[in-house]
Structure formats: C-alpha cells, structure tokens
Amino acid sequence: xxxxxxxxxxEEFQTKIHGISNSSIINYLADWHITKxxxxxxxxxxxxxxxxxxxxxxxxxxxxxxxxxxxxxLKSREIPCAIATASDIVNxxxxxxxxxxxxxxTSDKIxxxxxxxxxxxxxxxxxxxxxxxxLSPGECVVFEDSPAGLKSADNAGIGMIIALNASKVTDxxxxxxxxxxxxxxxxxxxxxxxxx
Length: 196
Known about the structure:
Elements: H1 10-17, H2 22-29, H3 36-56, H4 67-76, E1 83-84, H5 89-98, E2 110-111, H6 124-133, E3 141-144, H7 147-155, E4 160-164, E5 181-183, H8 191-195
Parallel strand pairs: 1-2, 3-4, 4-5
Helix pairs in contact: 2-3
C-alpha cells in the first residue's frame, strides 16, 4: 500500500508476490521506479513487519498440519531433505529459531535467496537443493505452495511435484502448471507409500 497507494489483488499475490524474491516483489510493487538501495531498505522494512506479525499471531505462525510427523518420518528413515525458499538469510534464521527447524535441517540443506542465482520461477533454487542432497532433480519430490515455486520445480525437472493448497482458495489449474498431486496439508501424505 505504501509503495503504490493501493492493495494488490489475489491474482497479483499469486503471480507476483507469493514465493517470489523481495527484489522482484518490490520492483513490481514500486512499478520499477526505485533505486537498488531503496529496494534493499524497503525489503528490510517489509520483512521486519512480517516477522513482527508472525510473533504477534502464534496461532497462525506454525508448521502446516502433519509437517512435524512427516519430517520425523523422513529423518527416522534417513531420507534426505532440504528447504528451498525465496526468503533471505534473516528470515531463514528467524524460521529456524522460531519453528525449531534444526530438528530436521542442517544449514547446508537450506537454500535461500543469497542473491547468487535467479529467483523462482527460475529452476536455480531446486537445482541447488538437489545438488546439496546429492540427488538428480528427477529423483526429488518437491512440496510447494506458490505458482512461482511450482513452476520453478517443473523448470528444474523435479521428478514429483506436490502442491500444498491449504486454503483451497487458489485455482492452481488456471496457471497451467505440472502438478502430480494436490494436498491440503501433510496429514494427507503417507510417507510409506511415497518413499518406499
């Protein structure tokens, strides 16, 4: 609202905001009329507000249903996993601390926006994550909740793409994405069937 004087639509959120890097979001919202330095300052302010909202709403700031059990399942069977997020390091550290992600992920298995490669929907995040896991992209399963992330996984040649559509608000079919399965949350996944 502050950058352009109006709220964004649901369509804009899904295609220009959700799962996209801060620099791309801010450039879009500012209609390309800001400097690189201003963009960085705006991103810092935006993410600070976001983290404050997370802390203020603990009932909403939590792992999606079934995620802990699913990640425990993967860990107990030594199935490698990684995080590939468009978030920056400050937010990644916030998530790791607040959601106790160290239970499942070491820092080398978290791919984040360090400005060294293209953001989603480019394949870079998922190609980097699969390399860190020692797997080919075709051997990987990706769980994604944004159209940009789903396209990124497809562009990377990921073997199985599972869309997390918790709210069922987004009609994923309209984005012409390759999706192998749509789930509401991780309670709908049977790890034994998926990985064995």
